[in-house]
Amino acid sequence: MTANSLVQLEQRGGVMTITLNRPEVLNAFNDAMTRGLLDALKVAERDSAIRAVLLTGAGRAFSAGQDLNEFAALDQQSRPGRVHDHLATTYNPIVTRIRTLEKPVLAALNGITAGVGLSVALACDLRLAADDATFTLGFSRIGLVPDGGASVLLPLLVGLGRATELAFTSDRIDAPEAQRIGLVNRVAPANALLDEAHTLAARLAALPTRALGLTKRAFNHALLPQLAAWLDYEAHLQEIASHTEDHREGVAAFREKRQATYTGR
Length: 265
Ligand code: T3D
Description:
β1 (7-12) and β2 form a beta hairpin. The chain has twelve helices and ten strands. The chain is an alpha/beta fold and 265 residues long. α6 crosses α7. The chain is globular and about 55 Å long. The strands form two sheets. Strands 1-2-3-5-7-10 form a six-stranded mixed β-sheet, sandwiched between helices. The N and C termini lie far apart (48 Å). It has helices at 31-46, 68-75, 82-89, 91-100, 116-123, 150-158, 160-169, 175-180, 193-205, 209-223, 227-241, 245-255, and strands spanning 7-12, 15-20, 52-57, 61-63, 105-109, 112-114, 126-130, 134-136, 173-174, 186-188. Helices cover 49% and strands 16% of the residues. It binds ligand T3D. Ligand T3D binds next to α2, α3 and β6. Residues 25-26, 28, 64-69, 83, 86-87, 112, 114-116, 136, 138-139, 141-142, 144, 147, 238, 254 line the site of ligand T3D.
């Protein structure tokens, strides 16, 4: 089973484990890894022997979000709509595919989960975290708005007040706090996380898959009926944010490993 070298696939029983594999940059998403994840989700959708999916990361992170070096190159293009189009062809299809895959999708959050890495985790059905994992939206620190569905999925999970605080401040929270506010379902010792997540995924894979899939469809219909339009609107807002000086300063500061100075422009 293959996706590409940046996304590893393993099937055991009815569970397919997808591992994001760019540990040297905390599994930040570049376009190749994004394509690999989309391909892996297609495999999971089409293969009836796969009845649950487990998504995790190699190394000390689940994912640090968009690769900011690749994003800086995108920023240098002056083409209107470039960020909107990037989202429309990368994260929005990933989130849509996870939500419409009528099989349980679990995220095993093995470490730092940031930016659109957190959005992808929020799109999954269940989240299990290592006890040493940490979480930050991170978008505001680079002058962006939460995307990849986070602007709807996070308030649904933790409430509007907490979601607003996390989005505005980009504060980094630990696993017990994430569980307390409902951002993750379970916390496991770091060295037992994958086993625990696989055990739960295998249990779900042995349940009536069609019923679970229809349950997911019902929740989508009740709570996310406008997901496609919402994702498109987020992409529109991100396009606006990406043209600000504060965005350029935030990305430059990250790459130069210094504090950013924002001006509000
Ligand atoms: O169109 C669109 O796609 C728009 C969509 C945007 C979606 C987004 O996801 S925006 C948010 C992007 N993510 C971030 O802003 C997070 C950036 N990373 C961090 O703030 C920190 O790395 C963390 C808080 C996640 C972890 O900090 P720490 O101190 O544990 O690790 P570190 O030393 O910062 O990172 C380790 C290495 O990973 C480092 O490389 P080096 O110095 O060892 O060569 C660092 O540069 C690299 N890395 C971490 N995150 C990213 C990254 N490289 C590229 N892109 C990253 N996002």
